[in-house]
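Entry 12.
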Amino acid sequence: MHIPDGYLGPTTCVAGFAAMAPVWAIASHQVKKTLQSRQVPLLAIGAAFSFVIMMFNIPIPGGTTGHAVGAVLVAILLGPWAACIAVSVALVIQALLFGDGGITAIGANCFNMAFAMPFAGYAVYRTISVGSSATSIRRVIGAGVAGYVGILVSALFTGIELGLQPLLHHTTTGHALYCPYGLRVAVTTMVGEHLLLFGWIELAVTALVVKYLQRQDPSLLHPSAKVVSAGSTRTRLWIGVAVLAILSPLGLVLPALLNADSAWGEWSTEQIHTMLGYIPAGMDRLSSVWHSPMPDYAPVQAAGSMHLSLAYILSACIGIVVCVAGVFVIGRLLSGEDGRGSRTNTSGFIERTLLGVVSLLKDTVSNDQIASRRGLLQRCDPRIKALSIALLLTCALLSRSLAALAAIYAVCVALALLSSITAGFFLKRTLLFIPLFSLLIVVPALFNVITPGDPVVSITGGLSITRQGIDSAAIFLLRVLASVSLAVLLVLTTRHHALLKVLRMFRVPRVFVMTMGMTYRYVYLLLDIIQNTFTAIRSRVGFIASTRTGRRVVASNMAGLWVRSYRMHTQVYDAMLSRGYTGEPKVLDTFRVKATDLVILACALLSLMGTLWQNHFSR
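Predicted 3D structure (tokens):
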């Protein structure tokens, strides 16, 4: 069921990671709320069990092979969110160390086996076993059916992902670029194999382990139990994982005895060439993108210094150790407990974070203090300043030269310093959010898959970073950075009412200007209320040890804040009307154009003309 490199196109690979990113984030949050430090060994056992059980390839005589996953069993013991983390760790280690599943398909593999499978199986288990005791036979039946349904759901998603590739990626002659089999073949084969054979194996494994735990430690199966398994039970479970590691060579012997090929959808490029007469171009390019240090669980096979079965056992032991180490690190971080099992107090961090965010928003919204300083841009006529910055912004958007964009950004930094804005304050507001996200967006453009050209850094499998990719990424990043810096300069050095007046002079519709003015005043007042409310809660309630109590306090104050906000908007608007507000922004200062303003405008015009001239002669 592992999807190797080259079987999924870039669209599906990116979609897999995009789908799993919020799942991993939510799983970490959920596990952090419920996981105790003493339960981390059980989570590690679950990851190790899932890793080892997937090494047992069960053959269909004369056909292909498949394996159990164990994700539903981990979900039954620790919940589906913990199972998501444990199985994800096992899948990532399999892909990186042993080449079982591709690194480009980690997102899709985790979605199929670490998300869809445990959640679907756990829902079936809870439905069947609801209201039963921990030792009830319904628990065993529910676990078996859950394992069967879970692996079928995982196989269905795998078949859909593979079957979509010929539709999404193909040549003009109709040859598939990645997986060559369509939906009818892929879905039918994947679901059929697991429906007839591999699902029953998952059923037997899950049911037998649950039956064993009923005899040894039924508290593990109690839906609301906070009891952690005894040391003797954990020892027996570790012994069981060790026995599975010793027996893991059966995953090699049985397929060889029954003359079974690789699992369906996990063929090598040589097998694909034999089957189709050609190798899909995308598959050929991505199949060697990552060379695992221990391919096919046989680290010394090529050297011939160890029997293949012993190499397989060694790989199992290495994988178990790495899985356990990874899960222990993640578990300790998520459990939020110290080494003695006591949960650490994070309330100070939460308070500082909340107050810091509110303070940052207030500083961002309220910039009149900076705008009132005696700097270069503060003394400029707001109309000329806005027009000059608009011209420079046009230069940044049109320029295709790294040197020109770097010069524009350098001018922005120099203007900030000449306008009495500290470098740290300015850089924090221009480098903190938008350019960093832009950097994440342009990273794929560095590689020859997206931007062909002259290779600068060569990576495995024909993948390389090109000079053209570096140039395009740098231009995009500098363009965004310069644009954001110019906008920040205009906002920080212009009083709010003056900026609204300039917008009206530039024929911006009055309804937009009026909305901006109301929003500015209202948001600042709202942030002030939030900060004062939080201070009042701390002074009356103090430390909130219970998460449930904290949620109740926050919910009640949110309701009160909403009522106050609803009443306040009328008061704010009435106060503005009483001071002569008519929908048009008014300023007491008179706009006057000075010689400095004309020089700045002339420089901006020359910059735009130079950009247009450079673009014309660089074609």
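Annotation: The chain has two domains: 10-335, 349-617. The two ends are 51 Å apart (CA to CA).
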